[in-house]
Write a structure and sequence with these properties.
Distance between the termini: 29 Å
Number of helices: 17
Strand content: 5-15%
Order of helices and strands: EEEHEEHHEHHEHHEHEHEHEHHHHHHH
Number of strands: 11
Structural class: alpha/beta
């Protein structure tokens, strides 16, 4: 599969952008476990053109992440064009690796985004969505991709026709989340419509499916049944970034890897913590690791007191000591993926 000139090989696995989760340190460990393509947390076009520090900080990527896409969102065409150009020039603006492609978020369902017409709110204005996409494609030299949903609600699943229009606007790949905006993340993702997008004879760009991929078996089923070019994994990576390794092994061999043991999880947590501190500094790096540290050990028995330490300690050395304690206390345990992810 190729996005423009970016060759991702056969059946690539994508890390979905998730706000407050897929920062540079989490992307580091996902890449370590075999994510083929990753994206930044989504970046507000309004924030970028106002030079908001939080938005600008999200533009910074690293060589170990390549290929990496910078994802932008918004509903003002001119702001989206400016933001796309800033994403294209991220290396000059904030340093680091920069972007290999620009991705447009037309899929975020949260109220503060969608209700003001951005993210999946754009599903109610497909003409405007296509116009913004064309303007962004024309404004940058990098490949442009889009992530979106099936439609606004059950009565407006417009994705098959919309996919053609977005392709005609010049995008190089399309990711479809198999829910409407009204569903948020409830119910089951409808992969049949994703499959219809892929089987449309007019479609010639790669189609990436997203939604409810939480196991190697489900990933293989979606590749086989719906014919998608790639699969994007979101919530199932949280506390379980090694899912990329598990899926790749299963696709290659047909065999399931054994669950990751506590010792391995401790070693991973230490690497992740160290990278978070390296990227964001000690105070912020520790603070933003708390959600991950507890998620890595979900399902361990009699873990409440230790979990409390992991989410309240602020001194890195004390956190490392606590992780060493986890290894010594539970190191021989095996936590099944059903309880730990």
């Amino acid at each position: 599969m190729k996005i423009g000139e970016i060759d991702l090989g056969k059946q690539p696995l994508f890390l979905a952008p998730m706000e407050d989760v897929t920062d540079a340190s989490f992307r580091f460990v996902c890449k370590e476990f075999g994510a083929d393509m990753m994206y930044t947390e989504f970046v507000s076009s309004d924030g970028l053109i106002r030079d908001a520090k939080k938005s600008l900080d999200k533009l910074r990527t690293y060589d170990y992440e390549t290929p990496i896409g910078i994802q932008i969102y918004g509903n003002i065409p001119e702001a989206m064009v400016d933001a796309a150009r800033m994403a294209e020039n991220a290396a000059e603006l904030v340093g680091g690796h920069g972007a290999d492609l620009v991705d447009i978020n037309f899929g975020c369902p949260v109220n503060k985004i969608a209700r003001r017409g951005a993210g999946s709110g754009m599903m109610r204005e497909p003409d405007k969505m296509v116009r913004i996409t064309k303007m962004v494609v024309d404004a940058v030299r990098l490949p442009v991709t889009v992530k979106t949903r099936l439609g606004w609600d059950e009565d407006s699943k417009i994705i098959v026709e919309l996919a053609e229009r977005l392709q005609d606007a010049g995008i190089k790949a399309l990711t479809v989340h198999g829910r409407t905006r009204s569903q948020m993340y409830k119910g089951d993702a409808d992969w049949t419509l994703i499959g219809k997008v892929k089987e449309n004879p007019r479609m010639h760009i790669p189609v990436i499916g997203n939604g409810d991929i939480d196991s190697p078996e489900k990933a293989k089923e979606c590749f086989d049944r719906y014919g998608v070019d790639g699969i994007m994994i979101g919530r199932a990576t949280y506390g379980h970034p090694w899912i990329f390794r598990e899926i790749r092994h299963y696709l290659d061999t047909g065999e399931l890897l054994p669950p990751m043991g506590v010792d391995e999880r401790v070693a991973l947590a230490k690497r992740h913590l160290a990278k978070s501190i390296e990227v964001k500094g000690e105070k912020v790096g520790v603070l933003e690791m708390r959600r991950h540290l507890s998620a890595y050990f979900k399902g361990l028995p009699d873990f409440k007191e230790t979990r409390l330490k992991l989410v309240t300690l602020t001194d890195p050395s004390e956190l490392y000591d606590t992780l060493d304690y986890v290894a010594s206390r539970w190191g021989s345990d095996i936590v099944t993926d059903d309880t730990a992810s």
